[in-house]
Amino acid sequence: GLYSANSGNIFVNNQEINQEQLRELYSAIFSDFYLFTKIYGIDYSSKEEEIKKYLKILRIDEKVQIQNGEFSTTKLSTGQRKRLALLISYLEDKSIYLFDEWAADQDPEFRHFFYTELLAE
Description:
Keywords: ATP-binding, Nucleotide-binding. One of its GO terms (molecular function) is ATP hydrolysis activity. By secondary structure, the chain is an alpha+beta fold. The chain has one domain (10-114): Rossmann fold. The protein contains four helices and six strands, in the order ββαβαββαβα. The radius of gyration is 16 Å and the shape is globular.
């Protein structure tokens, strides 16, 4: 995870915020991420079309489906599992995304797509 500051104040847009408010601003995928078998903390029922869109964009729509908030499988390559974690991050719709060596496990074609298309958004 991320370390909390020992001293000082946190400001976003000239407004002081606390640690909890800071955590609400970002979504992170760390290199040692864990992928649950279902979606937690997100109202997935209102996001079915968005989920389908991201599965297609992330090129895993033929590998995994999400029904009732559960993944049809998590038996995917590490790169594909990271793409599924990225989908969850996108659904959280945060202002800030942190990626710890995210592209390291992607094939060269998708790595290029990640840097030139996805990050460009």
